[in-house]
Specification:
This protein is 70% helix and 0% strand. The chain has 177 residues and is mainly alpha-helical. The chain has a domain of 121 residues. The longest helix has 36 residues.
Length: 177
């Protein structure tokens, strides 16, 4: 029973870490979008920059190719099915891009694309040195479904917290007067 409880807690922590990584990536991408919009890049330019970054990270595979390979519907986001290590890799490359675009005051799509592609390539090189090929990692559970499950589990845990079971009630000792 204790082992099963520990497994459930471990799974819950891993799920929460993946959700946290995805949330961080969303925030970094929003910041990048705002950042490059101020530097003369429109939404379609942002999409091209992200796509070229993905190609660098996934060894030449486009976002569309990765979705097809992982059997992800076209209307869903690739990042919602990636393992935590890949989400974190994408986030680090995006954060570095944000930092350097601001620091170097880059203007226009071309220099920002070069920066983002280089950052994704550098992250890919590091992953490869550690034996991780992002394009070969299997997909993970849909983060939207996962988020619902985590919220449900948290409600269950909160509901059980502080409740005293009948067995615990019988073993409590009331202070003597």
């Amino acid at each position: 029973m204790q082992t099963r409880k520990q497994e459930i807690i471990k799974d819950h922590i891993l799920l929460a870490e993946r959700l946290k990584a995805r949330k961080q990536l969303k925030e970094s991408e929003k910041e990048l979008s705002r950042n490059i919009y101020e530097r003369g890049v429109d939404e379609s330019g942002f999409a091209r920059i992200r796509s070229k970054g993905d190609m660098a990270l996934f060894g030449g595979h486009t976002t569309h190719m990765m979705k097809k390979h992982l059997e992800i519907a076209d209307n869903r986001l690739l990042a919602d099915f990636l393992p935590t290590v890949t989400i974190t890799a994408k986030n680090l490359a995006t954060e570095i891009t944000n930092f350097n675009v601001t620091k170097e005051d880059m203007q226009g799509e071309d220099p920002i694309t070069v920066e983002h592609v280089q950052n994704n390539q550098d992250i890919r090189d590091l992953l490869l040195k550690r034996g991780i090929r992002p394009e070969t990692l299997p997909p993970e559970e849909d983060l939207i479904k996962l988020e619902r499950r985590v919220k449900s589990q948290e409600k269950q845990i909160a509901g059980r917290a502080g409740k005293i079971t009948p067995a615990q009630r019988d073993t409590r000792h009331e202070p003597e007067e």
